[in-house]
Amino acid sequence: MSTTRSRAPKLNRKLHRLGAVVAAAPLLVVILSGLLLQVKKQWSFVQPPTARGAAPELLVDWGTILEAAQSVGEAGVASWDDVDRIDVRPAGGMLKLLAHSGWELQIDTGTGMVLSSSYRRSDLIEAIHDGSFFGGNLIKLWVFLPAALILLGLWVSGVYLWLLPYLVKRRRKTRG
User: Fold this and answer.
1) C-beta of residue 50 within 8 angstroms of C-beta of residue 106
2) Residues β-bridged to residue 95
3) Is 131 helix (H, G, I), strand (E, B) or coil?
4) Alpha helices, H only, the chain
5) d(CA 48, CA 76)
6) How confident is the model over 105-155, as pLDDT tens digits?
7) Which pLDDT band holds residue 1 (cuts at 50, 70, 90)?
8) Strand order in the sheet with 83-89
9) Average pLDDT along the chain
10) Total-model pTM
11) Which segments of 95-144 does DSSP mark as H helices, in order?
């Protein structure tokens, strides 16, 4: 029985090291992209700052919104097919139109004027963060999910390795 107990910590250390090597690259991607996402509201490189419009309600029609989006050439909006989504912010008097090109247009909900147009990187960084950027659900589920599970195992084995000297010390005190 004592040989089994003495093998367990050694096996745990080996598995801990192996898990760290296997999960290193995906976890580095998750950590670095996560750091960028943490500061997306503070760093305009990641996500444009939110502008404020004049009217606290939606007064413009869909045609006006599309015309405003078409007026910004970099956004590449020719029709509604080029629009990924629209996020209406009534309290701020504006809406965010996100184009498939990655451009974010902030449009005043009262006048239909473009308040801001910038390239938005946060969606790209989120796709990198969850692994879908590298090959959709296949990489997300077969590389990044196992890496997360390995990280959980590393955390558990790391806590065990950290506690082990204290547990051994306590066991020695109770025996003698």
Assistant:
1) yes
2) 88, 107
3) coil
4) 2-38, 62-70, 122-130, 136-139, 145-175
5) 18
6) 999 999 999 999 999 999 999 999 999 999 888 889 998 899 999 889 888
7) very low
8) 83-89, 94-99, 103-108, 114-119
9) 89
10) 0.71
11) 122-130, 136-139
